[in-house]
Design goal:
With 679 residues, the protein is an alpha/beta fold. 47% of the residues lie in helices and 10% in strands. The strands form 4 sheets. Strands 6-5-4-7-8-9 form a 6-stranded parallel β-sheet. A 6-stranded parallel β-sheet has the order 13-12-11-14-15-16, sandwiched between helices. Strands 1-2 form a two-stranded antiparallel ribbon. Helix 5 runs antiparallel to helix 7.
Length: 679
């Protein structure tokens, strides 16, 4: 396998090459006034620990830490590199299951409370309740929506928390039968999410499971628990309680911040309290209080997934940044209140907020920030019924902070972009007139393939560059792109989610989307909405009668950075879809574990993990693999690529690129080093 460069980007590289001019402007501004960002802290961490990058450091007991090398190939207990790398990865995966599962449980409890009437919450997704009940086999005309919602909540909670072995009802009701047969044959069907996390921590403890292949089997069980409980179960509860996404057009990027308004950012992943904050910010009484304080109104801004979720369900939220860019948003000095719930809320935000007037409020017992005010649901969720009261207190904190804003410290870049949002399987099928029509576009080659392009950001590559370069190459080759979560912000900000973006697509994709006024990239919401993307993929399998692993579909998270990213990629790999990345897993110190993930899983799952540090070459590999699947299905070849690139048309990158020619395909390297970077 080819060796790739280990050079990591510098902050100067980010300033020079990030595709978003607002990011560049903020980095330079914050440097001038002496405020540190994640990009400065990344510089300070170099050189990174090679044992950590290779996955060969074990801290699971206190006889270590043990760091294995060819000269000292075993730790104190006798564990070798294969076992250490597999155990480390399993613990990551367990953390990912817990992360999405914990915040999903909050929504499931809220759905149960709304169904029982113990919470004053309307069930805004009755059509989703009925559709889900039908899939679960519990629908009956005489049952009310509330009754069905209560039954659904209990099924989801049972799949999440089960300890008594039994069928995982969500998985067995919704997974493709072909996949179910494979998972049963591999003996990787989960008991329940809680149990598989419990078991993962148990078997990676001192002197327990010493067979790296058996550890990997548990990793696959956790992958299924992640995909079908932590993600799918949570997404079902959200759609039942808050309704399906609604199509709309919004403005985004830092130039969308207004100075004469009370500005409140919602940051994190949990929608329950955020939905109440959206409702409170619309109240005439609180808007009148804001005006009395000198503001024109109250505005909400989205950071990370809380904003994406509320935006898709309710509107009234302006998306600004993913987690990595949160401190750049704070650095504008224009945010009055920062509301942080759970996950991807870096502790560094407190240092930046302290430089301005911005107050920070935390809303979950799981996620405290030293120095922040805590207005939250308690550990037992016994005060879920107080969401409206808590939301009112929070909004009033923002109104009070508005009067403390220091005008001389406000710095707002002008960069701003409109974007279309709110895509769901339901409204897509309605727009096209059914799955058969979409399948015909795919079969004909007008749509070459479909990619779910998602993931967090990682300073090991230039901020947002990889996501953007992959996206622009894909759409130029007639590949339809779905996006959600942190990666989506880059595409929202740079025009990919507007119909005008069709100027940089292939003629086939343009012929499909232009008559319907659709953009080349469809924003599906927050990171949980990987469930929406996988459901969209399954519509093609159902309509064609072909297994998922044979279709020109793929998952890509070029800049992934955390445990949930491992789970997201594995969830799609378990469906038989290849995953594509610019950053590798920390397993390069283990030849066996590396071989399993990069090659061997083809025989087991029908899919592999592809790592190529150069995003343009990564996109070429996706396209080549899609063309191979099309050829195997005897489907027509897709048309020639558009030589123009979207960021080039906007002045943010190269206007032209060499069109992909499958006959001259590159010998792509699989990078097993997490720290590699392209030149």
């Amino acid at each position: 396998m080819a060796k790739t460069s280990s050079r990591l980007p510098t902050k100067a590289d980010v300033v020079a090459r990030t595709p978003d001019p607002a990011v560049r402007e903020m980095l330079l501004h914050l440097e001038r006034i002496g405020i540190e960002t994640p990009f400065d802290r990344f510089e300070q961490q170099k050189p990174q620990c090679s044992f950590g990058l290779e996955g060969t450091c074990c801290k699971n007991c206190h006889m270590g830490p043990c760091r294995v090398t060819p000269k000292k190939p075993r730790g104190v207990c006798g564990a070798d590199a294969n076992l250490i790398a597999a155990r480390n990865l399993l613990r990551w995966m367990a953390a990912g299951v817990a992360a999405h599962g914990a915040r999903g449980r909050e929504v499931m409890l809220a759905l149960k409370g709304a169904a029982e009437g113990s919470l004053d919450l309307p069930i805004l997704g009755p059509e989703k309740v009925r559709a889900t009940a039908k899939v679960f086999g519990i629908d009956a005309p005489e049952k009310s929506v509330e009754s069905l919602a209560g039954e659904i909540a209990m099924i989801l909670l049972d799949d999440l928390c089960r300890t008594l072995p039994g069928p995982h009802r969500t998985l067995e009701a919704m997974a493709p039968p072909e996949r179910l047969a494979i998972w049963k044959s591999l003996d990787i069907l989960p008991v329940g999410a809680y149990h598989e996390v419990f078991e993962a921590l148990h078997r990676t403890g001192t002197g327990t499971d010493s067979d790296w292949e058996n550890v990997t089997r548990q990793l696959l069980r956790c992958g299924l628990a992640f995909a079908w409980s932590s993600v799918m179960g949570s997404a079902i509860a959200m759609d039942c309680l808050y309704g399906l996404p609604k199509r709309g057009r919004i403005s985004t990027n830092l130039g969308a911040i207004t100075e004469d308004t009370v500005n409140i950012a919602v940051h994190g992943h949990s929608p329950v309290l955020v939905s109440a904050i959206v409702k409170a910010a619309r109240r005439d009484e609180l808007i009148a209080e804001a005006r009395a304080a000198g503001a024109s109104t109250i505005r909400l801004y989205g950071i990370c997934c809380s904003g994406n979720s509320a935006l898709a369900k309710f509107g009234d939220v302006t998306p600004l940044s993913n987690a990595m860019g949160a401190e750049l948003v704070l650095g504008t000095g224009a945010l009055d209140l920062w509301v942080a719930d759970v996950q991807d809320v870096f502790p560094g935000i407190m240092d930046v907020a302290a430089c301005f007037h911005t107050r920070v409020v935390t809303t979950s017992d799981s996620a405290r920030l030293p120095g922040a005010e805590h207005i939250a649901f308690d550990h037992h969720h016994s005060n879920l019924d107080q969401a409206d009261v808590l939301a009112e207190r929070i909004v009033r904190r923002g109104i009070a902070a508005f009067g403390e804003r220091q005008a001389g410290k406000v710095f707002i870049p002008k960069a701003r972009m409109d974007a279309e949002i709110g895509f769901s399987v339901e409204n897509i099928l309605e727009t096209f007139g059914g799955a058969a029509i979409l399948l015909e576009h795919l079969r004909s080659g007008r749509i070459r393939g479909v990619v779910n392009l998602v993931g967090c950001n990682n300073p090991k590559v230039v901020y947002e560059e990889s996501v953007v370069r992959v996206a622009e190459a894909l759409i130029a080759h007639d590949v339809l792109v779905l996006t959600n979560g942190c990666a989506a912000f880059a595409l929202l900000k740079l025009g990919f989610c507007l119909p005008e973006g069709l100027a940089a697509t292939g003629s086939g994709l343009a012929s499909v989307l232009e008559p319907l006024g659709l953009p080349p990239v469809w924003h599906m919401g927050e990171c949980l909405d990987n469930a929406r993307a996988s459901a969209f993929f399954r519509t093609f399998a159902n309509a064609s009668g072909e297994p998922l692993h044979t279709l020109p579909l793929a998952f890509s998270s070029p800049e992934w950075s955390n445990e949930k990213g491992v789970g997201a990629a594995l969830g799609f790999r378990l469906l038989g879809l290849d995953s594509y990345h610019c950053i590798g897993l920390p397993v390069s110190g283990s030849a066996a574990v590396s071989r399993f993930f990069y090659e061997g899983s083809r025989d087991v799952l029908g899919s592999v993990m592809v790592v190529e540090p150069d995003p343009v070459r990564l996109a070429e590999r996706i396209i080549t693999d899609m063309d191979a699947r099309r050829a195997a299905l005897e489907w027509p070849a897709a048309g020639a690529a558009n030589p123009r690139r979207l960021t080039g048309l906007q002045g943010n990158g190269p206007a032209h690129a060499h069109p992909h020619d499958p006959s001259t395909d590159h010998d792509h390297a699989h990078d097993h080093g997490a720290g590699s970077h392209h030149h």
